[in-house]
Amino acid sequence: MAKVNDNYLKLPGSYLFSTIGKKVNAFAAANPDKKIIRLGIGDVTQPLAPAIISALHSAVDEMADAATFRGYAPDLGYEFLRNAIAENDYRARGCDIGADEIFVSDGAKCDSGNIQEIFSTDNKIAVCDPVYPVYVDTNVMAGRTGTYQAETETWSDVIYMPCTAETDFAPELPGKTPDLIYLCFPNNPTGSTITRSRLQEWVDYANRVGAVIIYDAAYEAYISQEGVPHSIYECQGARTCAIELHSFSKNAGFTGVRLGYTVVPKDLKVGDVALHGLWARRHGTKYNGAPYIVQRAGEAVYSEEGKAQLQKQVAYYMNNANYILEGLKAAGYTVSGGVNAPYIWLKTPGNMTSWEFFDYLLEQANVVGTPGSGFGPSGEGYFRLTAFGSYENTVEAIDRIRNLSGC
Ligand code: MLT
């Protein structure tokens, strides 16, 4: 008789953004006259840049002609895209990463969930708290996290690294030694960053204890300050301890197009096993690659025209971030993030829990955000707003929040 993977049964509730989606849909159905502004999930709203649209059109035309038609993509992704990534995201920043260490995929969410498969199930993971829920949930599915403790909303076998106002929303080196360390900077959900020298301490630590860092750099395009690293490979020794995840969703608006990549350096070994070979085996066996037309669109992200257009798009969202940050500050909220990241992290007013504030904001201002506790226990009492809305909706949402009374 078939048996289910009962690790799935341990997962409490549904995926955070599915829960929010259901609540918002129910509210919308009950209040059809209300204009709801969605600043919850970090989904982009601006159209694809013209350089990308043009690359997509040309690639579609190629697919219409037998002479230029393409079938399955190469295992690691097309060389034209991997070369552009290696040149622009790494060599231009002085990082030693080759095109053959880059694995093109359909997005960083999938990679951040799948990467744990190449590690033993008895590895101990360390995560920031709060944290992007995919890292923890996929380790639960794999049976790596022990039992769920409802009172503390934590897993018995996970090392939590609290990121609170006291630590400037950055993690301290953990007291217990982990095997896998998940880091994401600029951070989702808090919008905090890490300096290069602080990240170097993590790299040194991981090399010292034999841990692997899974570094999620999905939001690097939003870095505006000097001294904030765009890649973990800006740190010495990262080639022997770090895997890096990248997305095209946030820097180029590909949330609906789907494209990302993962870097596994050839020097990265666990014992005498090179992780590059394991990830290549997994990629080749379970995956047939992002579509040709999408990889051509990805290549256009690195064209001169594409870069200039995307810089403007990032600036557009960061203008929203600034509006949210300053607007909420003026209204008396305690806020952070929003300078090197498209997320603003605010303290809920009047000691409301994160979910109480979610309901309050939805009902009173018809604005959707994300409850901090959905990202982990240290997120309780906090709330995340995204800067990915349109400017007009962002302004209207903040004006509505400012006009609320009683908080
Ligand atoms: C978020 O809102 O945290 C992200 O958009 C979710 C994602 O990128 O998968």
Describe, in plain words, how this protein is organized in 3D:
The protein is α/β, with parallel strands linked by helices. The protein has helices spanning 16-30, 50-63, 79-90, 108-114, 133-141, 196-209, 249-252, 275-286, 292-301, 304-330, 354-365, 391-402, and strands at 37-38, 102-105, 125-129, 148-149, 154-155, 159-162, 180-184, 212-216, 242-247, 260-263, 269-270, 273-274, 335-337, 343-347, 367-368, 370-371, 382-386. Strands 2-10-9-8-7-3-6 form a seven-stranded mixed β-sheet, with helices on both faces. It has a four-stranded antiparallel β-sheet with strand order 13-14-17-16. The chain has a two-stranded parallel sheet with strand order 1-15. The model has no long low-confidence stretch (mean pLDDT 96).
